[in-house]
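TL;DR need structure tokens for one chain.
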Amino acid sequence: FPVICFLFGTLIAWMIGSAWATIGLMFPIVIDMLQKLLNIAPNTPLMSVELAIPIIGATLSGAVLGVHLS
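>> reply
TL;DR here they are.
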């Protein structure tokens, strides 16, 4: 899942040309997908989820790479 977030973040940032817009677009989608895929309760702290940090890092890294490529 982190690799998919990285690739989509790169692609979207490359098309949009803005890392901040990509981050603002991707984070709500990625966090919602993470909650649904792992069956996490809505009130669970995000930092208690093991995949949260790698997914956030992959999304941020993909957005920065996409901007550098565009």
